[in-house]
């Protein structure tokens, strides 16, 4: 469904070339929950921004349903770490924003909004403004709003990165419950390995900068999942494998920096 082929990205910064990504290849199947993990600065956000159409690859191609991505589009829904709700709209009007923009008849908008407020547990907060919501609730609205647009793929960049540990766990379980309703295709970025294994069908582990795919791992833990799965031997074995890979990359990156410093 989504195909990234031979994608590289070079930035020009202060007269220097920064090779952020090098020869990225990956494919995502319909209804797959794909997660990208990697050390800090390996280019995760850059890759997601290219899939979103906010950046162009320097070389290579990204296609969705076989069509090259040339800019942002309603077929891709975005949820970022920073809260991006419209502060002047209530919870329900934030969720209704996209469907109204697409001129969906108001009766249908209402039923879409009711559905996504219900699955995200926000029905009783529908008339509140974002400033009255906690961080976790704001991200629930952001998820409901992205899903109400009925995109082909949901792109999530560390959506729970700003939340405290307990809220984060609650949000991961909520996201899986929502996902299990309609199995939307998801591309999710995180540096949290527990989060990656807990959510994913497939994990793409990236190398240090210039980022490329080091290994793709299938997560065959049974679904539906809850957090008790974190204590299973399968989970712990997978975590060890990924921690080792990222640790190796971070160590090499640190060694490269200290060599440059000398
Ligand atoms: N607009 C830009 N101009 C110049 N360099 C950039 C730009 N955007 C990203 N970079 C560089 O590209 C590399 C990858 O950045 P990116 O933010 O994609 O990494 P990341 O894996 O998401 O990092 P983190 O996990 O720390 O958020 C970094 O070296 C970054 O400085």
UniProtKB/TrEMBL annotation:
Residue intervals of the ABC transporter domain:
2-233
What keywords are annotated for this sequence in UniProt? ATP-binding, Nucleotide-binding, Transport
Transmembrane annotation, as ranges: none
GO molecular function (one) = ATP binding
**KW Lipoprotein (keyword) present:** no
Family matches, as Pfam families: ABC_tran
**UniProt-listed Gene3D superfamilies:** P-loop containing nucleotide triphosphate hydrolases
User: What is the name of this protein?
Assistant: ABC transporter related protein
């Amino acid at each position: 469904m989504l195909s990234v082929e031979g994608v590289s990205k070079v930035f020009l910064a202060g007269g220097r070339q920064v090779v952020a990504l090098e020869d990225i290849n990956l494919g995502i199947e319909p209804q797959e929950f794909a997660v990208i993990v990697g050390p800090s600065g390996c280019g995760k956000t850059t890759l997601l921004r290219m899939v979103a159409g906010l950046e162009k690859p320097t070389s290579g191609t990204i296609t969705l349903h076989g069509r090259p991505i040339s800019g942002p589009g309603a077929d891709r829904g975005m949820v970022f770490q920073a809260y991006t709700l419209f502060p002047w709209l209530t919870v329900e009007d934030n969720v209704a924003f996209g469907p109204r923009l697409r001129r969906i008849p108001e009766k249908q908008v209402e039923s879409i909004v009711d559905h996504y407020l219900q699955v995200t547990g926000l029905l009783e907060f529908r008339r509140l403004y974002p400033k009255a919501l906690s961080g976790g609730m704001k991200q629930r609205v952001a998820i409901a709003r992205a899903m109400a647009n009925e995109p082909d793929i949901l792109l999530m960049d560390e959506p729970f990165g700003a939340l405290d540990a307990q809220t984060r766990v609650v949000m991961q379980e909520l996201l899986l419950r929502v996902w299990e309703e309609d199995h939307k295709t998801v591309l999710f970025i995180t540096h949290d390995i527990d989060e990656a294994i807990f959510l994913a069908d497939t994990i793409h582990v990236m190398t240090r900068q210039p980022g490329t795919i080091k290994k793709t791992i299938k997560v065959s833990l049974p679904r539906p999942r809850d957090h008790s799965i974190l204590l299973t031997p399968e989970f712990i074995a997978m975590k060890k494998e990924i921690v080792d890979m990222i640790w190796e990359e971070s160590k090499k990156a640190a060694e490269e920096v200290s060599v440059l410093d000398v």
